[in-house]
Amino acid sequence: MNIPQDIREGAQVAVQTCMNIRAKDCVYIISDEETFSIGQALEAEALATDAKVKLIKMEDFGTRPFTEMPEGFMEAIFDFDPTVTIYAAGAQRGELTFRMGITAQMIKKGIKFRHGHMVSITEQLMREGMRADYQQIHDLTMRVHEIVKKAKTITFTSKKGSDVTARFAPDLKWIPCHGLYHNPGDWGNLPEGEVFTCPETVNGTIVADILGDYFSPKYGVLDTPVTFEVKDGWVEKVHCENKQIEDELWAYLNSNENGRRIGEFAIGTNTALTKLSGVLLQDEKIPGIHIAFGDPGGRTTGADWSATTHIDVIPTDCTIAVDGEVLMQDGAFVFDL
Q1: Fewer CB within 10 Å: C terminus or N terminus of the chain?
Q2: Could you tell me if 279 and 119 are in contact, meaning their C-beta atoms sit under 8 angstroms apart?
Q3: Residue 244: pLDDT above 70?
Q4: Strand pairing partners for 319?
């Protein structure tokens, strides 16, 4: 196929720089009808390294959304025995458990692999976030990680009215997501650039312009922001002028026991990104704060609880202070990059 040059460049960064794919690798790419052209671009770049490559389309395994693992899906992965997996497919309502189950079952099976997660990837993201300088993102991410990893309190405000205080426990780990996944067991999103943990508790008001999970492809950049009132780490109220979004979001948050509990507190570190795209995968990496309600990623953060949902929310133009020291002013880091 004729792949546009800028898409090919983004795929090349993903394959060679971020995932470090080489001739010895076996690369399994999960795509779907919506994103198949991007899957083909990743396939072409992986083949150019002389790696063994298999590209699949999710719809070949059944009718979506996949609310449970389709018959034969994991067996196909196990038979290929990949060293690298890439999930480059859209997000549909109810598929979070399915997506989480892929890597969980591979780990349980004992497969030694590294994983790139590109859920809801678009050509726009391939042109923008995937053509960034990932060595620079790596260095900044690790610098921010050094600053926050022992933080007791982080506060942030935003121009639209966010005002939040978060507290952190020493036994809950901060995870640097720098975009260079070269060793077995390494994994992360692409595009990348963030540092995250599960907070001990959060209080305050969050005013968000982007929502995660299936809300991201459905609504994009919100015409009117959503306001979350948070007390002791739980959402107590949600308000939006768009009552359809408000009602749908409240139902989502209440769909399981820990759906309203804050499971992630993160700082974006991809300075190549300067404006919202409407796609959560990329927008959560913009320098600033994002918070997620639901599953805390206990396998990495050390949190001792779980949820069947996970939805990120993104306030913009944040000012952040770590234990009283300003880290970011109106969306820009205060130190030289």
Answers
A1: N
A2: no
A3: yes
A4: 157
Is the backbone peptide bond immediately before 315 cis, with ω within 30 degrees of 0?
A: no
- Pair (185, 258) in one structural domain: yes
Both tokens of 259, joined, read: 């759906």
Q: Which alpha helices (H) appear in 152-254, and where do they start and end? A: 215-219, 243-253
- Distance of CA 251 to CAs 237, 246, 259, 279, Å? 12, 9, 10, 22
Number of domains making up the chain: 2
Domain that holds residue 61: 5-129
Picking from 289, 211, 206, the residue whose alpha carbon sits closest to that of residue 244 is: 211
Torsion of CA 163, 309, 94, 236, to 10 degrees: -50
By the 8 A CB rule, do 318 and 326 touch?
A: no
CB 62 within 8 A of CB 36: no
Cβ atoms of 156 and 265 within 8 Å: the answer is no
For residues 290 and 320, membership in a common domain is answered with: yes
CATH code for position 111? 3.40.1830.10
CB 288 within 8 Å of CB 281: no
Sheet containing 52-57: which strands, arranged edge to edge? Answer: 52-57, 26-31, 84-87, 114-117, 187-189
Is there a single domain that holds both residue 188 and residue 308? yes
52 and 156 share one domain = no
Residue 26 clears pLDDT 80, i.e. is over it: yes
Q: What's the pLDDT tens digit per position in 135-159? A: 999 999 999 999 999 999 999 999 9
Burial of 93 (0-12, 13-18, 19+ CB in 10 A): middle
Distance between CA atoms of residues 294 and 235, nearest Å: 10
> Would you mind telling me the total number of residues written for the chain in this entry?
337
Q: What is the mean pLDDT of residues 316-328?
A: 97
- Helix, strand or coil for residue 337? coil
Residue whose token pair is 């610098």 = 143
The pLDDT tens digits for 278-310 are 999 999 999 999 999 999 999 999 999 999 999
Specify whether 261 is located in the same domain as 181.
yes
Does the pTM of the predicted model rise above 0.85? yes
Q: Are 106 and 237 within one domain?
A: no
